[in-house]
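Listing S7. Sequence submitted for prediction.
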Amino acid sequence: GWTMNHFLQNLPNLKLTGIDPYIGYMDGSREITQEMLDAQYLAAQDNISDFAPRGKILRGYSQDFVNSFEDESLDYIFIDGDHSYEGALRDCELFFPKIKSGGIFAGHDWSFDDVRKAVNEFKDRNGSPNIRIVGVDVWYWIKNENVNWYTQ
């Protein structure tokens, strides 16, 4: 919720939706408990509460909400979900059609072999430009790069 809060606070015309199941899991050898994630969900909701309805968090899996968004309706998508090859590829396939021409299609965890393989395969299949790597493990490209809605 901190990142969402930052963007919502600094970009007054932005509408931002986060999707996360907040379900316990193992992170390497460390357990992320359901209790921890329930508290994290409540904290995230609190962090963006001043910005409703521009900011909202949908609790669940991305594939359950993909049809909530019209094709070519989103300016920016950031994928940071299932880090398996199958999960990363599924998220790309489901959400790429939702991004506008000129929109930014991005995600996290480029250093994960399965994520990198899935994103590269998806990019190549769709004739997309080269992927840019920025910050800590973030990848992105611009859909139909010749369209720059964000600079107009």
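Caption to Listing S7: primary sequence and predicted structure tokens for the chain studied. Helices lie at 2-10, 34-48, 62-65, 85-95, 113-125. The CA atoms of residues 24 and 33 lie 5 Å apart.
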